[in-house]
Design goal:
By secondary structure, this protein is α/β, with parallel strands linked by helices. The protein has 16 helices and 14 strands. Helices cover 32% and strands 15% of the residues. The protein starts with a strand and ends in a 13-residue tail after the last strand.
């Protein structure tokens, strides 16, 4: 029997308007108007708990004194999000399924106002979180899924093709310990990620093709030209671990989100250079060389995106905070991806966990997250596989209550997929 799936859509208009529909009408539809003031307060509390890249002390505050640094304060945050955002009617339907031992799939289309909310940690009951009773993913915008000229790739057709891995590329003009420096630090043969790369090399599935797995990291040749050539040869997946510079929501220009590859400043593109480096922007991926060349090439032709993409970088999914979502996640979907896993907020590195939060030297929460996402993207059911890992992290958070299992890391990740639906988006009353 197909598991129940509920589609939840939201719209901002002072208050938050939410509607939900169960695929196949397995349960009654519902709609609710959620008061804006409690939502704004809960979202503010969430923002205060997250790393703030504009604050030099923001990461230290998040790891040491913020709500996510302690189990009890994190639970209070989860409760406030639940009270503000989970309608009674939907909560009752989910509780009824849980009592029957059925775990549904919740597919969310959040409004920009609540785009950073980690729905996984919402606490509908004292001993339950939403991830305990459901698998969660995000709905891709219908305008992107049905965009003219979009060539969608299919995992079942391409799953045996190479895995394109851009792992902590070396950014021109930036030292390893600088703002756009190394995310993973020095890689050794003992790390889980090295072991995974070794496995892919043994099966000749990795691009770039290297002989030593450590040579897949901190490369200087992984620029947009290399990425274009490699993707056009065919790929099953793209995994990026590195830096993203998100566009500020108040700018209204989500297309200015930037992916940092090993591109030099003299590379053509829409983003402004930073020192000796020009980032690859979402605008580049969407437009290609439109207005840059007399005979332009579309972004989808230059960078044909494979079926599954992992963007493991700070705020790589930040375009969902815009009313017009045209950032990196949207660019990957528009380029052909059917599924993208990205981050809602800035991510602490393993070094930050060790130096700031005081975890043991061998503790590698970020590498563990990378491996979990990579494992999920190799699985026929990536959403459930990733949710299973998140449930494991939550179980450890409940029992051990140590910072490496905090939702600060594992609930940052959300997966957007392009499974289609014809139900219209909820709109507030006129």
């Amino acid at each position: 029997m197909t598991r129940p799936t509920v589609l939840v859509r939201m719209a901002d208009a002072g208050d938050l308007y939410m509607s939900w529909r169960w695929v196949g009408e397995t349960a009654p539809r519902g709609a609710s108007m959620l008061p804006g003031t409690p939502i704004d307060e809960a979202v503010r509390r969430l923002a205060d708990a997250l790393p703030d890249p504009s604050d030099p002390d923001g990461l230290e505050r998040a790891l040491r004194t913020g709500a996510f640094a302690d189990h009890d304060t994190e639970y209070l945050l989860a409760q406030s999000l639940s009270r503000a955002l989970l309608p009674v009617g939907l909560a009752e339907q989910l509780a009824e399924l849980h009592q029957r031992g059925i775990r549904p799939h919740i597919r969310l289309q959040p409004s920009p106002r609540v785009a950073q909310v980690p729905w996984e940690i919402i606490a509908p009951a004292p001993t339950l979180r939403l991830i305990d009773i459901a698998d969660l993913s995000l709905l891709a915008p219908a305008g992107i899924v049905h965009a003219p000229g979009r060539v969608a790739r299919c995992w079942t057709d391409d799953r045996d093709l190479p895995i394109v891995a851009v792992l902590d590329p070396r950014i021109p003009g930036f030292r390893a310990d600088s703002a756009l420096g190394s995310v993973l630090g020095r890689m050794s043969t003992a790390t889980p990620l090295i072991e995974r790369i070794t496995e892919y090399l043994s099966r000749q599935r990795l691009s770039p093709a290297v002989t030593d797995p450590a040579d897949a990291f901190r490369r200087t040749d992984l620029d947009r030209g290399w990425l274009s050539d490699t993707l056009r040869q065919g790929a099953s997946r793209l995994i990026y671990v590195g830096h993203v510079t998100a566009a500020a929501p108040e700018s209204g220009r989500s297309e200015n989100a930037e992916l940092h590859l090993a591109c030099t400043a003299d590379t053509r593109g829409f983003a402004e250079p930073t020192r000796t480096h020009r980032p690859l922007s979402a605008k580049d991926l969407l437009l290609g060389t439109h207005t840059l060349d007399p005979e332009p090439v579309a972004g989808g032709e230059l960078w044909p995106i494979p079926s599954r993409v992992a963007l493991i970088a700070c705020e790589s999914g930040g375009d969902l905070r815009f009313s017009e979502a045209l950032g990196l996640t949207a660019a990957m979907l528009n380029g052909g991806a059917e599924l993208v896993t990205a981050s809602r907020w800035p991510l602490p590195t393993d070094l930050a966990f060790q130096r700031i939060a005081g975890t043991a030297p061998g503790t590698r929460p970020l590498q563990s997250a990378i491996c979990a996402i990579d494992t999920a993207h190799e699985h026929p059911d990536p959403v459930t596989t990733l949710a299973d890992w998140q449930r494991e992290q939550l179980a450890n958070w409940r029992t051990l209550r140590t910072i490496e299992y905090s939702p600060l890391l594992w609930s940052a990740f959300a997966t957007v997929d392009t499974a289609t639906d014809t139900h219209p988006t909820v709109s507030p009353p006129s």
